[in-house]
């Protein structure tokens, strides 16, 4: 029996998530209303660590091209380009996290992020979830290394039990539209399928940002509260690498 080479195993680990994302999405029968989410109510806000991508020209161009082909679908709320992002780790709703903890959380995160080099982030191709149309993003091991550092920082300050968990597995992604109505999945998935041939892009991430997240009508928006820098380097995060990286 042939043993897979180290290179092929590493290739699946780095890029196998692309087909896994698509397989999960195309298996859906129905889509849900993204805005009906547990814990959210009018006026409530939350703290999150995010990779903010609204200033990346390559990601904006990719999102623009795909959104133009989806804008006719009434059940989708398109994400404004300036709010493009990859959510890495929730800290908690603002009414659940003492303000005095934030400086400590940021300091603990900055120490851990300083030893992680900047990461190349591949955005694309297009896939989705029950509540959103979104780009796959990876490689997953690199994004998860950043997430793990942030979770360790939260545990240091607030204790392990206070670190938010997810009902589903963490899957890095960049949403470009949110579903606003329970509906049949087939028309949306068919539209997404036609866009999967659009080339992915890669940008280098040098920082993650702690934001205070709020909901505006059919959109998310936020204020940046602090920055955690990967490798202790303050460069821009918009340098482009070849898509095949």
What would you note in describing this structure?
This protein is of the alpha+beta class. It has one domain (14-39, 49-234): Cyclic phosphodiesterase (Cyclic Phosphodiesterase, Chain: A). Helices cover 30% and strands 31% of the residues. The protein has six helices and twelve strands. It has helices at residues 6-15, 17-26, 57-68, 99-113, 140-158, 186-193, and strands at 30-31, 46-52, 76-78, 85-93, 119-128, 132-138, 173-179, 183-184, 201-205, 207-216, 219-229, 240-241. The strands form three sheets. A six-stranded antiparallel sheet has the order 3-7-6-5-9-12. Strands 4-2-10-11 form a four-stranded antiparallel sheet. Strand 5 (119-128) and strand 6 (132-138) form a beta hairpin. Helix 4 packs across helix 5 (140-158). The two termini are 30 Å apart. Residues 1-12 and 233-245 have low confidence and may be disordered.
